[in-house]
Each structure stands twice: as C-alpha cells, then as structure tokens.
Amino acid sequence: MEDHQLAQIKTDLETSVGQRIDEICGSTLGSNFDQNQCAHYVSHILGYDFSQSASCKYLTFADSRNDDVEGATIRVDVIFNKLVAAHRQKLVNNMCYRPGLVFVTQERNIQPTGNMGDMPAKHIGIMVWPWVYHYSNTQNKVKKEDVTSFINTFTSAYAGNGPVVFYRGEFIA
Asked: In the predicted model, what is the mean pLDDT of residues 69-93?
C-alpha cells in the first residue's frame, strides 16, 4: 500500500470514530442496529465489496436500485477468506506494528484449510499501531481502542466456548 493511501485510510478512520453505521452507510442494513456491523464498517472504510450475496447493497431490492447506496461486504469470514494464506497470520504475543486488518474468532472456527467458518463469534477491525478501529455492536458506534484493550475485550467476550485466536491480515488491493 502506498503512503498516500495509508494516509487517507488514517484520516477516514479518525473521522469515523464515534459514528454510527447509519452515518457511514445509507443502505437498509445501515439503519438496522440489531445486526453485526463490524465487517460492514471495515468494508466501507476500505472499499471492499467482494460478493453480491454478502453486500449491503444487495440485501434489499430497493437498495440494489438505489445509486446512493455504495455496496460493502458485510461478513467477517468473506473478508478473511479473500486473503491468501500468506497474507494472514496469527498475532504472536499480540504484537504487529504494520497496519492491516485484525480478526478475532474462536480457534474452532478456523477450518483445517485455514479458512474461517461462519460461526457468529468473529470480529474484524483495522489496526494502525497502537490502535484498532472497529465497530462496537454493543455501543452502536465506531471505537478507537488500543491493541491491548481490544485483545482483552474480545478474549473475554469469546472465551466461553474455547480458545480465542487473533489474526493480522494485509489490506486487500
């Protein structure tokens, strides 16, 4: 990723802190606060729209016809699985200084192929050391959290059914 692209991402991330998803996305999904919005948020910030079946633009007929609705991928596993294996790795000692995506799920949700399954306990954010920007579904807003706090929050939230794993992924071009 070029420096000017990273600079724009940092600006977009900072601008989004505290916003609700309906301030970022005009789709029907953007106004549904009962849905998990973390991948939706990350995808709007980074311009990811990988699959019509997993895009906010194509969840309703009205949205698909609305030129003001910009599509974005809404599933964590779709984004994770889009990364080639060489572009995703477990966080070791929870440290990685290079900007990229950060994923969390239960270890049992990672399949033998290395792909992520579709169990509900998964989350995504954007890491720009020492911060993780992500959509808090419980607070219905974008949060900027230090890496340690992010890891502690999701280790606690997801640990009830087994070990929790964190991955770092490259930005997808």
From this structure: 90
